[in-house]
């Protein structure tokens, strides 16, 4: 068989503000690969099935001299993130052709991996869509699963506020908070997303582009748990409307990834209201919860 | 004996910005008391010996409609805070004349207390100055003692940064951090205070009015523990210069008590650096630690 195109998404320029496909990243088709004769040398060849685009990738596009919480992408190399791939050929005893793998992989149609390292073989006996394994059954689901258990200290009858509630992290937070008997206030960025979050039985759902977060929280709060994915205005509004001893789970700060974000004006209430604010990366919890997560979540998604 | 003057400090006006003695508070001598014939009705008469002035009293002067973390003072009534008084006469079986009491008392030369409630009888077998019981052996000392144990997670070789390091809270933090084997960076607001903090063996001491906190931390950090008494510029500088998984102990936010304080620009690093930020009031820990605190600290102060 003749070699085939091997398309890749390359990191091409450091963005200021939002990243721009075609400029800060480019699609490159200059390479080819001979699928049947690529030299494996005891490794294996993977075909990419699913790529995950997460907000935190923006952080990896920072200038190397600037602070970033994740390792920066290398210029002119493929960007990379959590993905699902299928083995095409294997000379590695750990995997065989047609096995599916989940790990951080390059944004590239085909690639050769020297070994399994941290990759997970997905058995998928539940028959989920493969895309679920980069969403609720992957890193975003693990993010919610682990940090909710570590930090939320959910109590029946208390109130939670969740931003970006239609996303893979936020939507699972909504469901956990409801399961724990909390009143759940949520924000999302479109009417379609609002409808989806309503279907998850959130008590209060609003489109933050049409309704001011501060007004909703003043009426529906005070809040005991704030699950923060976005920062800035939502963070300010949440701080002002917390109950005493609230827990603020800092899962992301999306509004700050493309610039400085809105300054926080009322930090003094962290002290005044005896608030605890937990910043975390899911990677710090993976070992602790990985096995029980894969045992529990994919099975629950099928129900 | 004829009645004597009974001077009081009354709350007279809600301050905007700094409070002003003579305006927001006034000294009033209009009342008198007959020390030998005041009707006690099974209670006791106290003479005030020591009054404590703490930054948080500013919060108690807020407009009742505004947020405050402590109960507001009543207009035209004496302000109140932690104090030491001595019993003049007692008809209460729990105390006798010449016993010394510590509690929140009105700023008033003489007053009658109906019962002991939360007041502590100070035996002072260590022979400390009575003023120590509103400082290192009182609420400020308890603040450091309890929250350092709850939150600092001090590790030998790590670095701590302490603001207001010459005060009764900060100076004890410096000593605890040094005892725990940490490198200790400190700020204070005058050369005299700097000299005092140096005498406590802090590793780095600077006058924040002459040297920029951000510059010192960039050179001497990153910091693993930030003991924050002041907020604003120090808070911003600390956030920028924390190590991964730093602990930020929010003990006070003095720069925010007289107004809004400097906005915080870089809150995104709380998430990025997996920081935990603990806001607390000492009152929430008193029951848990009170006995061991009084067992340990006054004795150590005498050494």
TrEMBL record, chains A, B:
<dbReference type="InterPro" id="IPR041694">
    <property type="entry name" value="ADH_N_2"/>
</dbReference>
<feature type="domain" description="Alcohol dehydrogenase-like C-terminal">
    <location>
        <begin position="168"/>
        <end position="290"/>
    </location>
</feature>
<dbReference type="GO" id="GO:0016628">
    <property type="term" value="F:oxidoreductase activity, acting on the CH-CH group of donors, NAD or NADP as acceptor"/>
</dbReference>
<dbReference type="InterPro" id="IPR013149">
    <property type="entry name" value="ADH-like_C"/>
</dbReference>
<protein>
    <submittedName>
        <fullName>Uncharacterized protein</fullName>
    </submittedName>
</protein>
<keyword id="KW-0560">Oxidoreductase</keyword>
<dbReference type="Pfam" id="PF16884">
    <property type="entry name" value="ADH_N_2"/>
</dbReference>
<dbReference type="InterPro" id="IPR045010">
    <property type="entry name" value="MDR_fam"/>
</dbReference>
<dbReference type="InterPro" id="IPR011032">
    <property type="entry name" value="GroES-like_sf"/>
</dbReference>
<dbReference type="Pfam" id="PF00107">
    <property type="entry name" value="ADH_zinc_N"/>
</dbReference>
<dbReference type="InterPro" id="IPR036291">
    <property type="entry name" value="NAD(P)-bd_dom_sf"/>
</dbReference>
<feature type="domain" description="Oxidoreductase N-terminal">
    <location>
        <begin position="38"/>
        <end position="115"/>
    </location>
</feature>
């Amino acid at each position: 068989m003749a070699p085939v195109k091997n398309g890749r998404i390359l990191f091409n320029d450091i963005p200021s503000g939002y990243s721009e496909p075609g400029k800060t990243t480019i699609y490159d088709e200059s390479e080819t690969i001979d699928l049947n004769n690529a030299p494996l040398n005891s490794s294996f060849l993977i075909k990419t099935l699913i790529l995950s685009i997460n907000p935190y990738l923006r952080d990896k596009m920072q200038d190397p001299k600037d602070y970033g919480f994740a390792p920066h992408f290398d210029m002119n190399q493929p960007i990379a993130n959590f993905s699902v791939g299928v083995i095409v050929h294997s000379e590695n005893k750990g995997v065989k052709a047609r096995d599916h793998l989940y790990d951080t992989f390059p944004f590239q149609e085909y690639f050769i991996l020297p070994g399994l390292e941290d990759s997970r073989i997905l058995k998928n006996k539940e028959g989920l869509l493969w895309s679920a394994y980069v969403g609720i059954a992957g890193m975003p689901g693990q993010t919610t699963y682990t940090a909710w258990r570590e930090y939320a200290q959910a109590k029946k009858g208390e109130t939670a506020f969740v931003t970006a509630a239609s996303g893979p992290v936020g939507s699972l937070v909504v469901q956990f908070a409801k399961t724990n008997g909390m009143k759940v206030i949520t924000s999302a960025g479109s009417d379609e997303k609002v409808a989806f979050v309503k279907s998850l039985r959130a008590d209060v759902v609003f489109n933050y582009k049409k309704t001011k977060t501060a007004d909703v929280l003043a009426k529906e709060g005070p809040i005991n748990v704030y699950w923060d994915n976005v920062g800035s205005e939502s963070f300010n509004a949440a701080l002002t409307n917390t109950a005493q001893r609230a827990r603020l789970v800092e899962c992301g700060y999306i509004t700050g990834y493309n610039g400085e974000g809105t300054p926080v004006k009322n930090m003094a209430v962290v002290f005044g209201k005896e608030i605890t604010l937990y910043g975390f990366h899911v990677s710090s919890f993976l070992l602790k919860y990985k096995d029980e997560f894969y045992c529990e979540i994919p099975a629950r998604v099928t129900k």
